Amino acid sequence: MNPLCRASAPGKLVLLGEYSVLFGAPAVVMAVNRRAVITVRDAPADKWVVTAPALEVDSAECVLEPSGVVDWSDRNSGERLVLVERVLAGLVARGLLNPQTEQPRALNLDTAAFFSSGPDERLKLGLGSSAALTVALATALTGRAPEACAADLEWLRTLVSLHREVQDGLGSGIDVAASQCGGVVGFELDTGGTVAGVVPIHWPDRIFRAFVWTGRSASTSTFLDRLQARRESGAPGVEEALDLLGQESERGVDALARDDPFRFLDAVERFCEALAVLGRVIDLPILSEAHLSLRQVAAECGVHYKPSGAGGGDFGVCFSTDHERISDFTRRAAASGFAIPDLEPDLDGASMGGM
C-alpha cells in the first residue's frame, strides 16, 4: 500500500478571551508547534481501517454505511474513536464524503505530540488535540486545499460545526480556527454562535510571553457544562462576571491592534481577576492551586499571568514587556516543579500534501 496523502494541523493556546468568547466577545488564540498528523492509504479490503497509537488503537476496522453510520468490528476500539466516527458521519451528512463512491481508506492518526509522559501516566496536555485532529481529518478526507481563513470563512464554519458535533455541541470553535489558520488570530462569534470573523494578528514585538504546564490535565467540558447550568439557573454573579470578562477581552484585543502593550497587560491582569470571580460563582476552580501559585510567582517577578483555556489545570501564560522578567519567571516556575515546554507559534495552519 502506498500512502495517498498526509494532512496535519497544529494545536492551540488561548491568549485572551476564555469563556467570554462563547458570548460574542473577541478573543485571541495562537497555533502552537504540536501537530496532529493523518496519513491516508488505500485500505487492503472493503473496510475502513483506523490506527491511532496515542489512543491505543491498532487497526480498528469499520464499515461506513451510505447513511454515514459507522459500524465498528470491535466495539472497544470504536469507543476510543468517537471523534473519527462523528467526523465521518458529519462529512457524509454534508455531502462532502460519499461512501458509495469513496474507496475505503486506511487512516493513521498521530497525536503523540499532544501528550506528556509522566512517571506513572500519560497526560493529555490540553493543546486542542481534538480540534487539530478534526481539522486534519476533514482536510485529508475531502482533499480540500487549505486557504487563508478570511478567504474561506464558510469552510471554517463547517469545521467548527463538525468539531461541535464531536463535543456534543460545546465549544466556541476558537481552537478550530487556530488549527485551520495557524499563527496568532483574533476570533469572534455572532449572537447565534456562528463564526463571525477571524483575522490574523501581528503580535507586538514589545510583548514577550511564556507558557507553563501545570502538570495536571483539565476537562474543558466539565467547566462549560457547569457554566451553562449556572447560567440557566440564574445563579447570581455569573452574568456580571461574563460581562467583565468580555469588556477586558475587548480592551485587550483593541490594545493589540493599536500596539499598546501596557493597555494589553492591564487587560490581561483584570481578565484574570474576572476569571477568579467566575470560578467562585460557578463553584469550580478556574484558578486552581497551581494557577494561583504561578500567579504569585508572576507577581513577584513583575509579569502578568493567566490560565490559558478553561483553567483548572493545563497551561498558563505570562506576558511582559521585559524579557529578563519573563526569563526570571520561567526559571522560578521550573524550580517550583512546573514544566516549561518549548512551544512556539506554528504559522502554517492546516496543511496537506502527497507522499
Quickly describe the structure:
With 355 residues, the chain is an alpha+beta fold. It is built from ten helices and 14 strands. The chain has helices spanning 75-80, 82-93, 129-142, 153-166, 174-181, 220-232, 238-257, 261-282, 289-301, 323-335; strands spanning 3-16, 27-42, 48-52, 57-64, 70-72, 105-110, 115-117, 122-124, 184-189, 195-200, 208-213, 304-308, 315-320, 351-354.
By secondary-structure content and strand pairing, the structural class works out as alpha+beta
Rg estimate, integer Å:
20 Å
What distance lies between the first and last C-alpha atoms, to the nearest angstrom?
12 Å
Outline:
globular
- Stretches where pLDDT is under 50 for at least 5 consecutive residues are none
How would you state the average pLDDT, rounded? 92
Looking at the chains present, what oligomeric state does this protein adopt?
A: single chain
Describe this structure in words.
By secondary structure, this protein is of the alpha+beta class. Helix content is 38%, strand content 26%. The protein is built from ten helices and 14 strands. The protein has helices at residues 75-80, 82-93, 129-142, 153-166, 174-181, 220-232, 238-257, 261-282, 289-301, 323-335, and strands at 3-16, 27-42, 48-52, 57-64, 70-72, 105-110, 115-117, 122-124, 184-189, 195-200, 208-213, 304-308, 315-320, 351-354. The strands form three sheets. Strands 1, 2, 3, 4, 5, 6, 9, 10 and 14 form a nine-stranded mixed beta sheet that branches. A three-stranded antiparallel beta sheet has the order 11-13-12, sandwiched between helices. Strand 7 and strand 8 form a beta hairpin. Helix 4 crosses helix 5 (174-181), helix 7 packs antiparallel against helix 8 and helix 9 (289-301) crosses helix 10. It is globular and about 60 Å long. 46% of the residues are buried.
